[in-house]
């Protein structure tokens, strides 16, 4: 709860901070050719282990690209190390990152039709589990899964279930540690495999 309160203070600080630099979506469209092999030309990846980038907050995409680039530059000491993305981000300039992020953010995400939505996923997302100290996911990511850009919380609605599952597992095992104040690690370490599977499937169906 302390980290959640801290995150809310970040929102307030962000609202009062100077305007964030913006990218050019049209310029970004000419820079995403290589990205499209995994993420699709419109940011809707057809490969479920790679994230959909369409409609994601531009500032969140910027942070991830900066983190991937930082990991490549420091040998994984800083940022977010990934064998593919770190190499892809390495040659990008700050302006490239702004433009690419602006382009993908401007695209519309394609959401799969809901099939069997696990009740456990709905319960954990909306209400958490007090008995295990699990905070409701919607406290940060919103009731509709759209996140909060100013606070740095990504939109999760409609994301591939497989990708969400991979990332939650990485947070749980501290294989990914570029989250704000370790908030996602704190939550994920309390989730078992069934929790992660249910949450991933639930989020993938949110529109």
UniProtKB/TrEMBL annotation:
InterPro entries: Cyt_c-like_dom, Cyt_c-like_dom_sf, Cytochrome_c4-like, Cytochrome_c_Oxidase_Subunit. SUPFAM superfamilies: Cytochrome c. The keyword Cell wall biogenesis/degradation does not apply. It holds the Pfam family Cytochrom_C. Keywords: Electron transport, Heme, Iron, Metal-binding, Periplasm, Signal, Transport. Residues 23-108, 116-207 form the Cytochrome c domain. Residues 1-21 form the signal peptide. Its main location: periplasm. It is found in: Periplasm. It comes from the Bacteria. This is Cytochrome c. It comes from Shewanella glacialipiscicola. The lineage of its organism: Bacteria, Pseudomonadati, Pseudomonadota, Gammaproteobacteria, Alteromonadales.
């Amino acid at each position: 709860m302390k980290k959640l309160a801290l995150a809310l203070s970040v929102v307030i600080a962000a609202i009062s901070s100077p305007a964030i630099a913006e990218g050019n979506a049209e310029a970004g469209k000419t820079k995403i050719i290589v990205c499209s092999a995994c993420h699709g030309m419109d940011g809707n990846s057809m490969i479920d282990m790679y994230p959909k980038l369409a409609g994601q907050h531009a500032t969140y995409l910027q942070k991830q690209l900066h983190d991937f680039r930082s990991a490549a530059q420091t040998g994984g000491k800083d940022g977010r190390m990934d064998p593919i993305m770190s190499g892809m981000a390495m040659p990008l300039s700050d302006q490239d990152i702004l433009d690419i992020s602006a382009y993908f953010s401007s695209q519309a995400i394609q959401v799969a039709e809901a099939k069997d939505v696990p009740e456990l996923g709905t319960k954990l997302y909306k209400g958490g589990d007090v008995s295990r100290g699990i905070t409701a996911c919607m406290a940060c990511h919103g009731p509709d899964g759209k996140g909060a850009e100013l606070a740095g919380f990504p939109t999760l609605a409609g994301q591939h279930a497989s990708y969400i599952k991979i990332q939650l597992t990485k947070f749980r095992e501290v294989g990914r540690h570029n989250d704000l104040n370790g908030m996602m690690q704190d939550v994920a370490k309390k989730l078992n495999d069934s929790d992660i599977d249910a949450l991933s499937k639930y989020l993938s169906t949110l529109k």
